[in-house]
Amino acid sequence: MTTSPTVFRLASRLDEIGFSDIVNIRNRIMKLREQGAKVYQFEGGEPYMNTPDFVKEAMKRALDENKTRYAPSSGIPELRAAIADKLRTKNNIAAEPNDVMIMNGGMQGLFGAFQSVVNPGEEVLVFSPYWTPIKDLIAHCEGRPVLVPTALARAEGFEKTLTRYTTDRTRAIYYNTPQNPTGVVFTRDEARAVARFAREKDLIVLADEAYEDLVYDGEHCSIASLEGMFERTITIFTLSKSFAMTGWRLGYTVAAEPWMTGMRKTTLYSSNGVSTPTQWAALAAFTTESDMLETNRVAYQQRRDLLLAGLNELGLSCENPAGAFYAFPDVSRVSRDSREAAEILLDRAQVATVPGVVFGPDGESHLRFSFSTSIETIEAGLDSLRRNL
Ligand SMILES: Cc1ncc(COP(=O)(O)O)c(C=O)c1O
Fold this sequence. Notes:
Elements: H1 22-34, E1 40-41, H2 53-64, H3 77-89, E2 100-103, H4 105-117, E3 123-128, H5 133-139, E4 144-149, H6 150-156, H7 158-165, E5 170-176, H8 188-201, E6 204-208, E7 233-238, H9 239-242, E8 251-254, H10 259-268, H11 276-287, H12 292-313, E9 326-327, H13 338-349, E10 351-352, E11 354-355, E12 367-370, H14 375-388
Parallel strand pairs: 1-10, 3-4, 3-5, 5-6, 6-7
Antiparallel strand pairs: 2-8, 7-8, 9-12, 11-12
Helix pairs in contact: 2-11, 3-11, 4-10, 6-7, 7-8, 12-14
């Protein structure tokens, strides 16, 4: 039998989809550690603390009670109802349980949302620097990300900047607050300006609120809570950051029709829902009285203040991130090429970071430092930078 050379070829729809650059950095760190080096790790993207006991206990109970069979693909009704409650009281989003879908992390929520909205050839406005996977999620729809510099929008006004990047192919806005990688938290007035623009131009908003519980300055405002926005917004949430549950893969989306139908379809034919015991454990996250969210927020803020003071003192000037757990200093004094700057910090001071250019061209000359780590690591990392940079 003869096979043509095209047989062992990946389907073309995956041609434009990349892999995360961050994996390459992790490999370098592993290598350094194998050689016995101590590496101060600031490159990560997950909470440093463990999942709360009340969630773990609920998981054990679910297993003991044999809650291990197929659940509805959209999620167990108890969890959807608890989340709708949370959305109404905390986010001011007028959601009913039927507007909520349980997802395998924020990532599956984002995947379903983009797939449900973006047609081939359509454009999505993306505030930039942006979280890297967004461009690949849009590419998977054969759409095109159009980068809108956040700093420019904040300086000259959202309406003016967004207008400049809008064409007759523009379909949606990806709106992430608090932002990865910059820690920017859009104000209520900024949310209003984006909402007004979306209504005027008849655009759909994909709101990524993965870091909603990590706000240090100002407030978190869900854009779907603003007038006339619920029907044109898909909001994506996750328990990954708020409840230190990155490995559990539990997220959720809230949206109206027709978006719900789109997300039901993408979920049904990919994962067919989230693991049943995991959903029962997630229910405990929403129904257990605890001051965990506030305690963690205060702990992150302490780490932010420590890292920021150290970076600024080193001449790596950095605006105070109002949210999330990342600092994004300008490192031109080390190198304008952020990949080179990251190499220099790793080689000279054993400090691991992520080059800003990974988050798009507006991230060049910057590095992303996560302050989701121990106080000792932040102090030791800064000390190493002081001695070696
Ligand atoms: C901005 C942003 N959105 C969404 C996610 C998705 O998180 P997960 O898939 O773990 O829920 C992340 C994770 O790093 C993120 O940084």
